[in-house]
Design brief:
Blueprint (H helix, E strand, L loop, with lengths): L6 H9 L8 H12 L28 H5 L7 E3 L2 H10 L3 E6 L4 H11 L2 H10 L1 E6 L4 H15 L6 E5 L5 E5 L15 H14 L1 H19 L11 H12 L20 H11 L2 H16 L13 E2 L7 E2 L2 E2 H18 L2 H17 L10 E2 L2 E3 L5 E3 L7 H8 L1 H11 L19 H8 L3 H19 L7 E2 L2 E2 H17 L3 H17 L1 E2 L2 E7 L2 E5 L2 H18 L2 H17 L33 H16 L2 H20 L6 H10 L3 E7 L6 H8 L7 E6 H8 L16 E6 L2 E2 L6 H10 L1
Parallel strand pairs: 1-3, 2-3, 17-18
Antiparallel strand pairs: 2-4, 4-5, 6-7, 8-9, 9-12, 10-11, 13-15, 14-15, 15-16, 17-19, 19-20
């Protein structure tokens, strides 16, 4: 394999050995042999035999994102001491580029700038270039995203940051067009590189001052001020009120564009309605769920949601699909169905889980991370969204004339298209209206749509598929395990519970090494320290599995991981949890995450876990730790209530403790009359467990919650407890539901 090295790179390689007597070049040659003849480099710089002309250190990594850049003419380093030591020795600034494998604009910047030999040559001669996969290193991403937001007022990926060799940022941004005038930008990336290099060498004092000030700003942003008291109950009402002022009454979600599914706290609105009977909260949540499901952001033919909508109407998505988005939307749609009775919401959750089962599940049962926005067209060009879109001619070819006519009417397709001459499938009208226009019954139309979607999906599978990022992340798997468990209970689907159990077993057996949870798994090996969200999200998944199955092994492993959080992530002085363990790599800041982003805050989920552990075990130490965490964040919560969603779910359960429902069956009995009602009921935060009388006896030896829980008189018996007090046992579902709705 040919390699292209700059002077700086060659000097480094000659100066030291790696792994005994091996140089970087030796390692690359060895890796090339391991990857074999089937390996296809992702670059336009190929020799006449199709081999990569350039190969850099990223070729030694397992991250799909880093491997995408392994054959750029840029001499990339992975994040680590080697890069910064080299920058210090050569007296160069560091160019940090952060992204992820399915990021469309990351691909654009790669093609325009990092594959450009002139730009690469300038970078190699004047910088040390470092690539980071934000999904593998969220700690690094959070620090430098905070810096970029402080500089520019916004953030995003690709993220481009200039650092000193001491890892301190002094300038940054997101995507930069390659040259002056490109995409309407007066200053291009190459010019930026030259100007910043000159400033670094000619105005060193100013750069050092800027870097120091920015590093202090980052530390302040990532460590919220201590609160010192518990948040007040009214702060949640303020958050809901803020959502109301920003709500899009036509399309749902937050007004304007782009639209992210996480921008509106749907599950909080559903809880607010249940507690307050405010119809506006319910309508906001229901409208948003309905419009998202009808839009192009929802893959109508294949199931699952794209990352976000670029327009205000949920029509044109950014076409990558992220595991975490789908994992978070499933419980939102399940709860939407439970709160409203709208069967469409139930069906959306089912189709989403079918997509994950079919396309995002490894042979070993764990869940892959994402699929790309871009794919190859028949002409060989890589374009965003082509895989998911259709022309009328393609409809006819795939479906035949009659079904093509139905599909066009249902999905609003026409000859002009709604996306670059092609059609994104969406539902512009209610199906009963379309059925009337087509002279069909609604039942017949729904049957036709199922057949049409199956045919479209089968035809689509013959197209070159978007790249799939097949790394397995502990945190994201935790979210998807929870999604399958919650849907499995609500929809009485044992297969969903089996799928969740398989994924949990994978994480427990393959991603815990020497007693420590790892961040990611790829190419047969677990790697990277687990972060707060890896532990918190996976603990939540294990608790979900325990509640659904009453199998103590899930609870035991949750307790083990919680002890790790307490020992290595806890802030014993102020409360709450840091993103990284106490033995993690020292960075310029140690974040204590509190705000939700596309994913829930790790602290919010960790505090919810403590409340759940308290409810399960009745051990007061869990509640005390939760109280300390809520106190730690009270100041920032009350100052910025609109910035929180998941934290308020935990706070709601803390201030208004939900029920603990134990349904006990006799040896020859069942709980169907109870479970049928419980599955379809919206009981947010409530612990609901269905156990046999013998299992209740076993569990009572571990938790007083299960003591004296028997099948009274040989009948299935339900026990409803709340806030430390239990009501009288009941033997009818009606009696139980009266107890649950009366408090």
């Amino acid at each position: 394999m040919a390699t292209g090295w700059s002077e700086g790179h060659s000097a480094m390689a000659a100066a030291g050995k790696r792994g005994g007597n091996m140089t970087v070049e030796d390692e690359i040659r060895l890796m090339a042999r391991r990857r074999g003849d089937d390996y296809r480099p992702r670059t336009r710089h190929l020799d006449d035999q199709g081999r990569a002309i350039y190969t850099n250190r990223l070729f030694l990594e397992s991250s799909p994102y880093l491997l995408q850049h392994a054959h750029n003419p840029v001499d990339w380093y992975p994040w680590g001491d080697e890069a910064f030591d080299t920058a210090r020795r050569l007296d160069r600034p560091v160019l940090l580029s952060v992204g992820y494998s399915t990021c469309h604009w990351c691909h654009v910047m790669e093609e325009e700038s990092f594959e450009d030999e002139e730009i690469a040559r300038y970078i190699n001669d004047n910088y040390i270039a470092v690539k980071v996969d934000r999904e593998e290193r969220p700690d690094v991403d959070a620090i430098y995203m905070s810096a970029v937001q402080a500089i520019t007022g916004r953030g995003g990926w690709p993220m481009t940051v200039w650092l000193t060799p001491d890892r301190e940022p002094f300038y940054g941004g997101t995507y930069f067009p390659a040259r002056d005038g490109d995409r309407g930008s007066p200053v291009g990336f190459l010019t930026m590189l030259k100007k910043i290099r000159e400033s670094y060498h000619d105005k060193r004092d100013l750069v050092a001052q800027s870097a120091g000030e920015l590093a202090r700003t980052v530390r302040q942003r990532l460590t919220p001020p201590a609160g010192g008291r518990l948040p007040l109950d009214g702060v949640m009402d303020r958050a809901v009120s803020s959502s109301k002022t920003r709500f899009d009454a036509v399309h749902g979600g937050i007004a304007g564009a782009p639209k992210f599914p996480s921008s509106l706290p749907i599950r909080l609105l559903l809880r607010h309605h249940r507690r307050s009977s405010d119809p506006v909260s319910l309508n906001m949540a229901a409208l948003t769920l309905k419009k998202m499901a009808a839009g192009g952001m929802n893959d109508q033919a294949g199931g699952g949601f794209h990352r976000y909508s670029t327009d205000a109407g949920w029509l044109v998505p950014h076409f990558e699909k992220m595991l975490y988005d789908n994992a978070l939307l499933v419980p939102a749609y399940i709860e939407g169905w439970q709160a409203t009775g709208n069967s469409r919401f139930r069906q959306v959750a089912i189709k989403t889980l079918e997509y994950v089962s079919r396309e995002m599940t490894s042979p070993d049962g764990a869940f892959f991370s994402a699929t790309d926005a871009d794919s190859l067209t028949p002409s060989g060009h890589r374009e965003e969204g082509w895989f998911f879109t259709w022309t009328l001619e393609e409809f006819s070819d795939a479906l035949g004339a009659d079904d093509a006519r139905i599909a066009a009417a249902v999905y609003g397709a026409d000859a002009r298209g709604n996306f670059e001459g092609r059609n994104i499938l969406f539902l512009p009208r209610e199906l009963d209206q379309v059925a009337g226009e087509l002279g069909l019954s609604l039942v017949q139309l729904e049957s036709d749509i199922d057949r049409i979607n199956a045919a479209l999906y089968a035809r689509r599978q013959a197209r070159p598929a978007p790249l799939r990022d097949d790394k397995i992340l502990a945190a994201w798997n935790g979210l998807m395990i929870s999604a399958f468990v919650r849907a499995g209970f609500a929809l009485d689907n044992a297969a969903y519970l089996d799928r969740a159990s398989r994924a949990a077993d994978f994480v427990l057996t393959r991603m815990i090494v020497a007693g420590r949870l790892k961040r990611s798994f790829k190419d047969g090996a677990a790697a990277g320290n687990g972060f707060l969200d890896d532990h918190a999200f996976f603990i939540a998944a294990l608790l979900d599995l325990f509640e659904a199955t009453a199998d103590l092994r899930w609870l035991d492993r949750a307790l083990e991981l919680d002890r790790t959080l307490a020992d290595q992530f806890d802030d014993p002085e102020n409360g709450g949890f840091f993103m990284t363990a106490d033995d993690h790599e020292a960075l310029i800041a140690r974040e204590k995450p509190v705000f939700d982003g596309a994913l829930p805050s790790g602290n919010a989920v960790a505090l919810m876990n403590l409340l759940r552990l308290n409810a399960l075990t009745l051990e007061p130490s869990y509640l005390k730790r939760a109280e300390k965490g809520f106190s730690a964040f009270s100041a920032i919560i009350e100052a910025n209530p609109s910035a929180f969603g998941e934290m308020f779910l935990a706070l709601e359960d803390f201030l208004h403790p939900p029920h603990q429902v134990i349904v006990v069956t006799p040896a020859d009995g069942d709980a169907a009359s109870f479970t049928d009602r419980l599955r379809a009921s919206f009981l947010p935060g409530s612990l609901v467990m269905i156990v046999s009388e013998s299992r209740a006896g076993q569990l009572s030896r571990r938790s007083p919650l299960f003591r004296d829980k028997t099948a009274a008189g040989g009948k299935t018996t339900a026990y409803a407890c709340q806030n430390g007090a239990c009501q009288l046992p009941v033997t009818t579902a009606d009696g139980l539901m009266r107890q649950l709705t009366a408090s």
